[in-house]
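Pipeline run #58 for the internal structure catalog. This entry was flagged by the ingest filter as a single-chain record with no existing model, so it goes straight to prediction. Upstream metadata was stripped on purpose; only the residue string is passed forward. Reviewer on rotation: M.T. Logging verbosity set to normal.
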Amino acid sequence: MKVIAAAAASHPDAETELLESAATDSVKALKERGAAVRAAARSAEDENARYCAVHTGRYVRHWADPDGAFRLDAKLTPDAGATLLSALQAEADARFNLARKAKTEENPAAYQADALVALVAGEPLVLDPSGSGRAGPTRATLCIRVDGTALKRGFTKTGEICHIPGVGPVPVAAVRRQLADAHVKILVRDGKDVTTVCHAGRTVTAHVQSALEERDPTCMVPGCDVALGLENHHWEIDYVACKTTSLAGLARVCHWHHGLLSYGGYKLEGESGSWVMRGPPGGDTFETGSPLLDSG
């Protein structure tokens, strides 16, 4: 079977286990096992390199069918895809509930199509408690299952998981990464038993966000003056460790540098007014007044 061959090509030692699973598991379960085997890494750098390759190759493409239909195709990282799917499902569910009350039900896929347009157009529909009106934007909720040993180590090995159900494997680094405007539920496993459930809501309070935007009007990496699309970065202690969103522990950085900090081995050190960005061993160090770190 293609699933077993693809997994065994990168991890030959897992072939026997997969062949045994093929005799008892469903096709879906076997595919999930195969994906987990292929995702197993030799190091955190190896795991992140594969993730970054997907991120680099991301795209959205569109074309028109002969009947005039507008078509879309997209390639995203699994965590980005999961965020999109979660938001789509919440919005589609709200629209289905309204349609059911009005007895005008359609195919579930049709509501997801309507949800996609509504979210992109900035017109999401969320049922209020009375079920009759708008109540603000749809909020995405993500669930990530991860083995405790992999979470401590920083990457998965064969037999361990770090994945989003219904989507697929993600790097352990993705568990610690800030997923903008999302609530993250992390289920930590010990063997097959879930030992810890961590609801990692990362939304910064309005007061802290206002103070952060006032303090950090541009990317805080020395030499970078990007002011649009900034992301909040837990610069001193990763959110998975500190579980706080205090002003002192946050810094705003551009999307490019946030990627380097999350997956490129770079570290942001110092404090407001005297930031230093240090590269991985053998890499460059950027201090206040140094040349801009090239963002390509």
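catalog note: Residues 59-120 form one domain.
catalog note: DSSP finds eleven helices and twelve strands in the chain.
status: ready for reviewer M.T.
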